[in-house]
């Protein structure tokens, strides 16, 4: 048997399959008139705590829904269930030992039974991770990052992909600034260096600082839809 | 560690284009702006390829450096670290022209 080697040109994007599913999700969201936020951060930055404030404040002003992404457990969904908004939990565990991010297919499964028509703004709380979620579009209209001041000033330089793709950065836990050797101006300078002019709001899920401003941002985005 | 998911995608693309033929090499282009660790990707690729027509294929990763053009002064740039900064005027507003690539460029296949 004679074997010959041949070269075949492919030119196919590694994430094309995901991006096509993300586009299909996006069309579904658009048909329902739902504005979609992909909420990303490292673990423990305060995504769920900020969402608790957000749902508490906006419940009679904006019809919100939440898709919770976690490797395991329904702990976050349990925390949010008292707000009685449409809520779905997606666990990424069935992947290779638990995927570190949500991808478009997981979100597609998550929203298959979701009452999108009743939701003006859907917040997709991604798996806590500063690297992987940035590579996978899920059909979102905007990417919002929660970044806590306990993480140090230099992370925009170390994890540039996510910071570059953010439309808004919530700089969280600012109530702790007085206890930390944290240079806020330096962080904001790095943010601007990586993503010039990106919107930012200083927040504290503990004291409620900045939460009104964040809620107004959400309401403006929801109204546009 | 999203490299496993990425590796899975690469193996699927290669398998589909190979159309039953055995794949001996996969040529992948990865821009420096992607957050992909080549060694982790190569490890994942070997694992995911097992039992497919891509098993045993070499993964050839070509890294593509960043190139951009300054929106302020128009100078061409090849920054090697973050933040991306114009070497001519020091500004941070660079239009990225190269470095975001992430695709399977070609395959080497065995034909019987």
In short:
Chain A has helices spanning 16-32, 47-58, 75-80, 104-110, 155-158, 160-165, 184-194, 211-224, and strands spanning 4-13, 35-40, 64-70, 87-91, 121-125, 142-148, 168-172, 199-202. With 225 residues, chain A is an alpha/beta fold.
Kindly describe this structure:
The complex is a heterodimer of chains A (225) and B (112). By secondary structure, chain A is of the alpha/beta class. Chain A has 8 helices and 8 strands. In chain A, helix 3 (75-80) links the parallel strand 3 (64-70) and strand 4. The model of chain A has no long low-confidence stretch (mean pLDDT 93). Chain B is of the alpha+beta class. Chain B contains 2 helices and 6 strands; from the N terminus they run H-E-H-E-E-E-E-E. In chain B, strands 2-1-6 form a 3-stranded mixed sheet, covered by helices on one side. Chain B is elongated and about 55 Å long. The N and C termini of chain B lie far apart (37 Å). At the A-B interface, strand 1, helix 5, helix 6 and helix 7 of A face helix 1 and strand 6 of B.
Which two chains have the most extensive interface, and how many residues on each? A-B, 40 and 35 residues
**Total count of domains of chain B:** 1
CATH class of chain A: Alpha Beta
And the CATH topology of chain A?
Answer: Rossmann fold
* Average of per-residue pLDDT values of chain A: 93
Count of individual helical segments of chain A: 8
CATH fold description of chain B:
hypothetical protein PF0899 fold
Proportion of strand residues of chain B: 25-35%
Number of domains as seen in the coordinates of chain A: 1
Count of strand segments of chain B: 6
Strand order across the biggest sheet of chain B? 2-1-6
Instruction: Return the string of H and E elements of chain B.
Output: HEHEEEEE
Structural shape of chain A: globular
Q: What attributes does this structure have?
A:
heterodimer; A: alpha/beta; B: 112 residues; alpha+beta; hypothetical protein PF0899 fold; 2 helices
């Amino acid at each position: 048997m004679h074997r010959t080697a041949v070269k075949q040109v492919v030119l196919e994007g590694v994430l094309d399959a995901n991006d096509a599913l993300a586009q299909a999700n996006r069309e579904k969201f658009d048909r329902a008139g739902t504005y979609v936020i992909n909420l990303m951060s490292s673990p423990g930055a305060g995504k769920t705590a900020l969402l608790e404030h957000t749902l508490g404040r906006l419940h009679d002003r904006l019809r919100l829904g939440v898709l919770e992404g976690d490797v395991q457990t329904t702990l976050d969904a349990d925390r949010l269930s008292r707000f009685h908004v449409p809520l779905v939990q997606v666990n990424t565990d069935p992947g290779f030992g638990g995927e570190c991010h949500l991808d478009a297919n997981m979100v597609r499964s998550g929203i298959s039974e979701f009452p999108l028509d009743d939701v003006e703004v859907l917040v997709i709380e991604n798996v806590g991770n500063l690297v992987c979620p940035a590579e996978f579009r899920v059909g979102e209209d905007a990417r919002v990052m929660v970044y806590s001041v306990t993480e140090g000033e230099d992370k925009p330089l170390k994890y540039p992909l996510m910071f570059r793709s953010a439309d808004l950065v919530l700089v969280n836990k600012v109530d702790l600034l007085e206890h930390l050797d944290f240079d806020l101006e330096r962080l904001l300078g790095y943010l601007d260096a990586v993503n010039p002019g990106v919107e930012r709001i200083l927040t504290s899920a503990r004291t409620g600082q900045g939460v009104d401003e964040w809620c107004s941002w959400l309401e403006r985005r929801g109204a546009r839809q | 560690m999203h490299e496993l998911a990425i590796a899975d995608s690469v193996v699927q693309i290669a398998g589909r284009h190979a159309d039953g033929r055995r794949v001996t090499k996969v040529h992948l282009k990865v821009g420096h702006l992607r957050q992909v660790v080549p060694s982790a990707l190569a490890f994942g690729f070997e694992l995911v390829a097992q039992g497919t027509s891509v098993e045993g294929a070499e993964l050839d990763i070509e890294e593509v450096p960043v190139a951009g053009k300054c929106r302020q002064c128009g100078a061409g740039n090849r920054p090697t670290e973050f933040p991306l900064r114009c070497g001519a005027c020091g500004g941070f507003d660079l239009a990225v022209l190269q470095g975001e690539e992430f695709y399977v460029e070609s395959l080497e296949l065995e034909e019987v």
